[in-house]
Each structure stands twice: as C-alpha cells, then as structure tokens.
From TrEMBL:
<dbReference type="InterPro" id="IPR045865">
    <property type="entry name" value="ACT-like_dom_sf"/>
</dbReference>
<dbReference type="Pfam" id="PF13840">
    <property type="entry name" value="ACT_7"/>
</dbReference>
<protein>
    <submittedName>
        <fullName>ACT domain-containing protein</fullName>
    </submittedName>
</protein>
<feature type="domain" description="DUF2241">
    <location>
        <begin position="4"/>
        <end position="69"/>
    </location>
</feature>
<dbReference type="InterPro" id="IPR018717">
    <property type="entry name" value="DUF2241"/>
</dbReference>
<dbReference type="InterPro" id="IPR027795">
    <property type="entry name" value="CASTOR_ACT_dom"/>
</dbReference>
<feature type="domain" description="CASTOR ACT">
    <location>
        <begin position="70"/>
        <end position="126"/>
    </location>
</feature>
<dbReference type="Pfam" id="PF10000">
    <property type="entry name" value="ACT_3"/>
</dbReference>
C-alpha cells in the first residue's frame, strides 16, 4: 500500500485500533538483559535506554514502570513526511484531557495513552476521523 501524505485522507482513513494489552514505559538499568522480542519500541537517551514493553514483562523483571499505557495504532499507512497528523490527533486528545505518547513506525503511528482513558481516546479519535470525512 502507498503511504498517504494528504492530511484530509489521513484523518478520514486513520482507523484507530485498540490493542487489548497493557504496556509499560521503562528505563532499563545498566546491565539489564531484556529479550528483544519483548520490546515494542525503544529510544536511546543520554540517561540510558527507554523501552516500551508489555506491562507483565516489566512486572516480571521488577522494572520500575514510569507510565502504564494502552496502545492505539492508526491503521492508515501514513507517510513519515506527512504534515499535520500528529498535531490533529494531539489536539483532539488534548481537548478530551488525554495525554499521549507517540511512536512513529515506517507504516503506522502508534499512540500510547493512559490505560484508564483508552476508550475515551478511541472515541475522540473516531470523532476526529468522522469530522474530517
């Protein structure tokens, strides 16, 4: 499928999908051995490696959880150079009082929102998509 850059098309086709699991943002302590198969996302920061893993993995490894999240994937194949998509969904979620941490993959945008606000986030994203149609 061709990546979409047009904002109106991105919004009308974004199709948010809620993953049924719970995910944890953690900072790995030095020397921590984590199976790469468990890593959903990662970023190297000056303080060390931050990762998103299934929450149960973090609990099993006794890793301090900085943020527990629900994972929403925007199913639309968004162009990494597209302008305005992140601003649009951030604004919609912000108006609903929902924080959001975004990870962009090559094909999709992945939104991590507070677990207890997952359904409200889905509602806000679906309303945004409908209003763009």
């Amino acid at each position: 499928m061709q990546a979409i850059a047009n904002l109106d098309q991105l919004l009308t086709r974004m199709q948010p999908e809620l993953d049924p699991g719970r995910y944890a943002f953690v900072a790995l302590p030095p020397g921590c051995a984590l199976d790469p198969a468990h890593v959903v996302a990662s970023v190297r920061e000056p303080e060390g490696l931050s990762v998103v893993v299934p929450e149960q993995v973090a609990l099993d490894m006794d890793l301090p959880i900085a943020f527990s999240a629900a994972w929403i994937t925007l199913a639309v194949h968004s162009d990494l150079a597209a302008v305005g998509l992140t601003a649009a969904f951030s604004r919609a979620l912000g108006r609903a009082g929902i924080s959001c941490n975004v990870v962009a993959g090559v094909h999709h945008d992945h939104l991590f929102v507070p677990v207890e606000q997952a359904q409200s986030a889905m509602d806000a994203l679906q309303a945004l998509s409908r209003s763009a149609a």
